[in-house]
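Let us practice reading a record.
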Amino acid sequence: MSAAAQRTALIVIDLQNDFCAGPVAAARYPGDPQRLATVAANAARAVRTARAHGTEVVFVRFLGDPVHQGAAWRHRDAVLGKRPKCLEGSWGAEFHGVAPEPGEEVFTKHATFDAFLTEGFGPYLTGRGIGHLVFAGVFADVCVDSTARTAFQKGFHVTVLRDCTAALHHPDEDVLRFMGRVYGARVTTHDRPAVWTRLPEYLERP
């Protein structure tokens, strides 16, 4: 990592009503709905902590309107009977339990999992000298993983807040273990800001 890419950013993924609360979220999430509520509350706390420590917060949101979907996405939804989520302008697309403050960047994914497929996301991070990404939000095995995977391949260092995310299709611990093994992700909790608001230890060594 160059000296110019020594900053940390908290990346908040898809913390939106259709993924975190209400009937759509409850129908999709196979675990205890209270788990989603706890994850969302912890992610909101992480945002407040990041701001207090001067760590940049970057929001990513999802819009799933059919007009944004590719042919394969529409086919999958038709086969599985899936309805689109986070429709533009709907309550479901609104942020849940947290809102960007003036000056904080928001990037919108149009029926994609990976935030790096959103125009400007990667260049914004590198332009800001950010080389360490801390992930919170949902879901750990879908959009968080997709973005963390690309981040690692592009040279970003990855930290995941285990109590600020939840997996949709696989056990949480299996997903976090995979990220640690394949992406070298550091895994910690939101209540340890002395750990995650800083660069990983190996980057701080002279």
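A brief commentary: The first helix runs from residue 17 to 20.
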